[in-house]
Amino acid sequence: SWNPDNDCCDWYCVTCDSTTNRINSLTIFAGKLSGQIPAQVGDLPYLQTLEFHKLSNLSGPIQPSIAKLKSLKFLRLSNTNISGSVPDFLSQLKNLTFLDLSFNNLTGSIPSSLSQLPNLNALHLDRNKLTGHIPYSFGQFQGTIPDLFLSHNQLSGKIPTSFATMDFDRIDLSRNKLEGDASVIFGENKKTQIVDLSRNLLEFNLSKVKFPTSLISLDINHNSIKGSIPVQITQLPDLQFLNVSYNRLCG
Asked: Which InterPro entries match (predicted)?
């Protein structure tokens, strides 16, 4: 419990720096917390970890005061009922290495400014109700190239051609309404390991695709992909999972 008569560093879900005694972590999950994210969370300037996870009664928008948390490295607001848009102000949190907004009721488009987070290792926007195109800027991440998870939304349009220069380790764009050519994701000289493009409207010639030798898992089922399975796929040394079902492949 959070008793104001006790040292806040002893409170449940709160962690403090052992030297400064400043709160650097607030992690609340699988509880009965209800209402909106309190604005006062922005008054913790030394916070490095903020997590609200598996809180089905947490609602409302993502709190704007979070933009004040300039030391924040880990932000997870997932498995809740928060709604509204993915806020552009998140791009101000330049120290973020992990951003997880999955399993919510977020709507609207994805802000292109998220590509300006220079230290991001993983971006989870999956399992929301996001619409619009994947930002072209997601093929121009500044600094670290994050693992990208955008599945189970309502994203449409084509995969940005800028992805041709991005070397994602993991990318999941499955269960959207994406169309056109996805071959820009691949390339012999890339180090991509896991790709899931399943259940979209993608249409390209698989025969002409050159795959990275690092590929471990490839799922492109339920699209309109043409051509035949390249011999190169059978020669990938680390491939453990392959699903090309429900396409227009021949041969």
From this structure: Leu-rich_rpt (IPR001611), LRR_dom_sf (IPR032675), PGIP (IPR051848)
Please state the rounded mean pLDDT for residues 144-158. Answer: 97
For residue range 199-239, list pLDDT tens digits in order.
999 999 999 999 999 999 999 999 999 999 999 999 999 99
Q: Select the CATH number that applies to the domain covering 168-250 from these four: 3.30.2170.10, 3.40.50.720, 3.30.70.100, 3.80.10.10.
A: 3.80.10.10
User: What is the Cα gyration radius of the chain?
Assistant: 20
Q: Which residues in 173-202 are b (16+ Cβ under 10 Å) and which e?
A: bbbbebbeebbbbbbeebebbbbbbbbbeb
pLDDT for res 131: 98
pLDDT tens-digit map of 13-31: 888 988 888 999 999 988 7
